[in-house]
UniProtKB/TrEMBL annotation:
SMART domains: 53EXOc, HhH2
DNA-binding listed as a keyword: yes
SUPFAM superfamilies: 5' to 3' exonuclease, C-terminal subdomain (SSF47807), PIN domain-like (SSF88723)
Example GO molecular function: exonuclease activity
Name this protein carries in UniProt: 5'-3' exonuclease
Record-annotated 5'-3' exonuclease domain positions: 1-272
PANTHER family registered for this protein in UniProt: 5'-3' EXONUCLEASE FAMILY PROTEIN, FLAP ENDONUCLEASE XNI
Family annotation (Gene3D superfamilies): 5' to 3' exonuclease, C-terminal subdomain (1.10.150.20), 5'-nuclease (3.40.50.1010)
Coiled-coil regions listed: none
InterPro entries recorded: 5-3_exonucl_a-hlix_arch_N, 5-3_exonuclease, 5-3_exonuclease_C_sf, DNA_polI_H3TH, FEN, HhH2, PIN-like_dom_sf
Length: 305
């Protein structure tokens, strides 16, 4: 099981009232909600291994260089001099992130990030590694771009409606829902655009036309090549729109596609791992008033034995 940690703790923060507080008065709604989500996922899907994937760079420079609008709407309006782009994060969430990461560590749950890359890239790299080894993978995220990693061995548990109502996306489910092969979802997203990531898309090409184009012609690179050569089966209208957006289409796929080549080394993804620290887990539960959530997580892990 590979989880998109930021996607989940943002959802937890907005899903649990900030009236949920530690004994010292600090809000711990994101920590409680995130811990409960992990417990639910482990109980329901009983994974053999687990990695909480982290954003070490939520807006990597290489993606911004290709498409400057990438996630630009999420940047804090005034950035301190000399610092990279800062993501606009609720003030009450920021101090909770180190606590929920400490809970993961104390519970013996692996977390992993790579400098300069997003959690999507870590997920894509690990999913590709396990898939190539013939091992089944569940990816948990509310980011639809990760539909692109779905294969016969890799399933996306999409959290768009919450962990209680997960949408299980397999290649068959993706084909039924979007009318495209899962591997071509990033190409579909590039054509259609995605306001949530600041991707403009190709003017005049909406969801339906984008799905038809990738289903019929393949990747963005293939679509561009056919438009340039005047492929007769491509309508003049689509060809004209594609050629007008040629500069964008030449770079956007590398923005949307998750990287599968990160150097993550050997990953100790055992569940639970050897570094579990029950005493620290107790201490965190006591200090931050997480008792019931910690208990649920412990019960979920004990159920795997």
């Amino acid at each position: 099981m590979l989880i998109d940690s930021a996607s989940m703790y943002f959802r937890a923060f907005y899903g649990v009232p900030d009236s949920v507080k530690a004994p010292n008065g600090m809000p711990v709604n994101a920590v409680r909600g995130f811990t409960d989500m992990i417990a639910t996922l482990i109980t329901r899907y009983r994974p053999d291994r687990f990695v909480a994937c982290l954003d070490y760079d939520w807006r990597p420079a290489f993606r911004v260089a290709l498409v400057p609008s990438y996630k630009a709407h999420r940047v804090v309006a005034v950035t301190p001099a000399g610092q990279p782009d800062v993501e606009e994060v609720p003030d009450l969430l920021t101090p909770q992130v180190p606590i929920l990461l400490a809970v993961l560590k104390a519970a013996g749950l692996c977390s992993l990030g790579v400098m300069g890359f997003e959690a999507d890239d870590v997920i894509a790299t690990l999913a590709h590694r396990y898939d190539q080894a013939g091992q089944a993978v569940d990816v948990v995220s509310g980011d639809r771009d990760l539909i692109g990693v779905v294969t016969d061995k890799v399933r996306l548990l999409y959290t768009g409606r919450g962990v209680a109502k997960l949408e299980e996306l397999t290649p068959v489910a993706v084909q039924e829902k979007y009318g495209i092969p899962s591997a071509l979802y990033p190409d579909f997203a590039v054509l259609r655009g995605d306001p949530s990531d600041g991707l403009p898309g190709v003017p005049g090409i909406g969801e339906k036309t984008a799905a038809i184009a990738v289903s019929k012609f393949g990747t963005i690179e293939q679509i561009l090549a056919l438009a340039v050569t005047g492929e007769e089966s491509m309508s003049p209208t689509i060809r004209t729109k594609v050629l007008k957006a040629q500069e964008y289409l030449q770079v956007a796929p590398d923005v949307v596609r998750g990287r599968t080549d990160l150097d993550v080394g050997e990953v100790d993804d055992r569940l639970p791992g050897p570094d579990a620290d029950p005493e620290m887990l107790d201490a965190l539960g006591s200090e931050f008033g997480l008792g019931s959530s910690i208990d649920r997580l412990r019960t979920a892990l004990a159920g795997l034995r």
